[in-house]
Amino acid sequence: MKIGIVCYPTFGGSGVVATELGKALAKKGHQVHFITYSQPTRLDFFNENLFYHEVGIRSYPLFVYPPYELALASKMVNVVQYEKLDLLHVHYAIPHASAAYMAKQILKTQGIDIPVVTTLHGTDITLVGKDPSYAPVVTFSINESDGITAVSEDLRKDTYQHFDIKKNIAVIPNFIDLERFKKQKKDHFKTAICPNGEKLIVHTSNFRKVKRVEDVVRIFSKIRKQIPSKLLLVGDGPERMNIESLCRELQICDDLRMLGKLDAVEEVLSVADLFLMPSEKESFGLAALEAMACEVPVVASNAGGLPELVQDGISGFVSPIGNVKQMTEKALFILQEENLPQFKANALQRAQEFDVANILPMYEDIYKKVKAEQDLLTSETR
Ligand code: GMT
Is 92's C-beta closer than 6 angstroms to any atom of ligand 1? Predict the structure, then answer.
């Protein structure tokens, strides 16, 4: 098939999932066209089936806010027409689903019927989307999509709860490339960070408020009083300054390193003993899945879809949001020498269920279904 993928090109989870999906589809022989405002971060290799179309945004002194959605819709029209796409798959509802609706209507006037699949990723529903400033457009454009998917049962439930959605939402969980995310031999790295055999704890995120990075630091501060350990923070974002202040206040700066945005996060995960994800909201928790694929157990909050990923007491633990005390106890339990190997093995076993090879066919099935329905409709109306 010829598929147009629309996503945010940045480090965020939705862009990562969209890009990895496109790469996997291309490897399977589909032709994939990315349509976005800059080269997706993970679109980092050549494949003859992968194409990238940049959305150019023309500014004008009149525009306080350049109309990205219009430029995106125009680009979609252009790419569908000239590349003869079979369908558009948009990731993150705002503004991609409404831009796709507009493109679809424009194309219809030219005799082209293009089905649209919308994948909901989380904050497009749970945070930004349900805000009254966007909700009517989000509701409308989800309902107008030919196929709708959500990355967890919890997000599916939330979507029905917050919006008046008339259509079926299929749950297709996030997935992982086990070829890339696997435990690598990086002993020299472990020795450099943990010279005295300390346990290594890792957190990766975009340091937004919803990630509760402060909880990560507080949990670590309590762990290190019981077990010699180090903390690596990967990523960057608005909370960075607060985190730095908290580390100083707790006097733990010597045992903590902030690595910033790192491409090869799997190298850090390869030497980690525990991953912390105490988020306030998390529709799925892709970063936790990446850790588990590298044999790292997870202590997480019970937010959103996290309990669907982390099996409590098996591949890690889930605790109530903000319960730093309980998360610390669970972390200390996992880090015991007699418990750690089993938790690591279980984490990997769980991650293997989300192998891209298992999840990709679910997307292909949706594509086939919406395309067949569109073809039928087209033949009936002509
Ligand atoms: O977590 C973020 O802030 C990034 C966000 C995004 O939209 O890019 O991630 C969301 O989508 C990911 C991929 O489906 C999920 O794994 C994350 O759990 C989800 N984040 C939230 O729901 C907060």
Answer: yes
Query: Does residue 354's CB lie within 6 angstroms of at least one atom of ligand 1?
Result: no
Q: Which two tokens stand for residue 136?
A: 């009517």
Tokens (6 digits) for 157: 């439930």
The whole-model pTM stands at 0.94
Across 145-255, where does the E strand assignment appear? 147-150, 170-171, 199-204, 229-234
Atom of ligand 1 nearest to the CA of 92: 7
Q: Where are the domains of the chain?
A: 2-175+356-380, 187-352
Round to whole Å and give the CA distance between 2 and 194.
Answer: 48
Ligand 1 in contact with 281 (CB < 6 A)? yes
> What spacing in Å lies between the alpha carbon of 153 and ligand 1's midpoint?
14
Residue 345 is encoded by which pair of tokens?
């093995």
* Architecture field, domain 2-175+356-380: 3-Layer(aba) Sandwich (3.40)
Read off the pLDDT of residues 153-185 as tens digits, 9 standing for 90 and up: 999 999 999 999 999 999 999 999 999 999 998
Ligand 1: which of 5, 123, 306 to mutate, most ligand atoms within 8 Å of CB? 123
User: Can you name the CATH fold of 187-352?
Assistant: Rossmann fold (3.40.50)
Using a 6 Å cutoff on CB, does residue 208 contact ligand 1? yes
Under DSSP, the state recorded for 47 is -
The residue whose CA has the least distance to atom 7 of ligand 1 is 14
Among 200, 196, 171, 168, residue whose Cα is nearest residue 183:
200
